[in-house]
Automatic annotation (TrEMBL):
Protein name: Glycosyltransferase family 2 protein
Transmembrane segments: none
GO molecular function, one term: glycosyltransferase activity
Recorded GO CC terms: cytoplasm; membrane
A UniProt-annotated Pfam family: Glyco_tranf_2_4
Keywords for the protein's UniProt record, in alphabetical order: Membrane, Transmembrane, Transmembrane helix
């Protein structure tokens, strides 16, 4: 039984999937379980062939009207022995790459940083467009080599590599536990990307790092959420796995298209990953399917460029991207807010309060809660004799 498993969901990912699969196979994952839904570009056919070649396990995720592809796939994954019997398990999207900074960059090197751990909560590194506006055929890890600084708090979501446990409930960021008794969850020994322990508050159900639990020393998740403006427009056309309307808009792009720091660590894998992809494409059947899929995407891009609002939408993304890092608190982004917060925002807008004022009010409110969590987490870690990587704690 393979011991190290990725669960992922895909729709119309043909230009990216071979490189993404190759990367994660190279670093040490021996099983990749893929759920697809409503593919138009031939991604599902490519995965069928890759399954025949022994590279993935492919399941078609039939989604009923009004259903959400991602939660449904995770529930179905929970019923698969190849998932639940794994030694190590993580849920990743195709725009997320596990980047291991320690040793030779292999999964074994990461696991060796905390031999006692049964989970690694690895923080996102939001990666930007790196000067690309139009589509590029370069692999994403080579085309996009600039990203957010460590202290970009809006990008502190995690993905968790963990050992499955009884009564677990899969989540896209981290597993939780079925029922109200969380004692078994608190008994888990999870660490961050610097091999330092996660806190009680995080284990309760958090999916983001705090300043005290942030750790990038050994590993992170490079999150290519935006890419070039043209690639982003194509992503928006595809929709999203949680059926959130208008998720991929100019505001999203402006916030997460971060290019402040050079982030070239994934280039260590560029040559072996390209070679691995070439090995896949030596199979004539897979190669034909791949070329057909790329032709589909070329036609889709041509249609996008011919649309009457193409120039306006591209300009909106480029304008949003000019927002400097230290001005993001003035950008209204209610998507991550709880329903009560979204209702408050809607009420303020109805009263005529300018969006910039609302954004600053939201930022101040969120910051207060974040600072409280930072302090609580730091206090817990310091009591254990653990010094967080970030912040000045007394």
């Amino acid at each position: 039984m393979p011991g190290r498993t990725i669960v992922t969901m895909m729709k119309d990912e043909a230009p990216f999937l071979l490189h993404w699969i190759a990367h994660h196979r190279i670093i040490g994952f021996d099983r990749i379980v893929v759920f697809t839904n409503d593919c138009s570009d031939g991604t599902d056919a490519l995965l069928d062939r890759l399954e025949q070649m022994g590279e993935v396990t492919h399941h078609r995720n039939k989604v009923p009207d009004g259903g959400k592809a991602q939660p449904l796939a995770l529930r179905r994954a929970m019923k698969l022995p190849e998932v639940t019997d794994s030694e190590w398990l993580i849920a990743l999207d195709v725009d997320e790459y596990l980047s291991i900074r320690t040793g030779a960059g292999q999964l074994d090197d990461l696991l060796a940083t905390a031999p006692q751990a049964d989970g690694f909560a690895l923080t996102w590194r939001m990666m930007g467009a790196n000067g690309h506006s139009d589509w590029t055929d370069m692999p994403v890890t080579e085309a996009y080599t600039r990203g957010a600084p460590d202290l970009f708090r809006k990008g502190w979501g995690v993905k968790t590599l963990f050992q499955p446990f009884d009564n677990m409930k899969l989540g896209i960021h981290r597993p939780t536990i079925k029922g109200s008794d969380k004692s078994a969850l608190h008994a888990r020994e999870w660490v961050n990307g610097s091999a330092k322990p996660m806190t009680h508050g995080f284990m309760e159900g958090m999916w983001r790092s705090s300043l005290a639990t942030l750790g990038y020393a050994h590993a992170e998740i490079a999150h290519f959420a935006t890419q070039s403006a043209e690639a982003f427009l194509r992503r928006a056309a595809r929709g999203n796995v949680n059926a959130k309307p208008d998720k991929y808009d100019a505001t999203y792009y402006g916030i997460f298209n971060r290019n402040e720091t050079e982030q070239r660590q994934l280039l260590r894998y560029a040559e072996p990953t390209r070679a691995h992809v070439a090995g896949y494409l030596a199979d004539p059947t897979l190669s034909d399917l791949y070329e057909t899929a790329l032709a589909w995407h070329a036609r889709a891009r041509d249609a996008l460029r011919a649309s009457p609002d193409y120039a306006r939408r591209m300009a909106a993304l480029e304008e949003a991207s000019q927002t400097p890092f230290d001005a993001l608190d003035a950008v209204l982004f209610p998507q991550p807010l709880a329903p009560q917060g979204k209702e408050t925002v809607a009420q303020m807008q109805a009263q005529g309060v300018p969006d910039r004022e609302i954004a600053r009010a939201v930022a101040q409110s969120v910051r207060r809660m974040e600072h409280m969590r930072d302090a609580e987490d730091a206090q817990e870690l310091l009591a254990k004799g653990v010094t967080p990587d970030y912040g000045t704690w007394r």
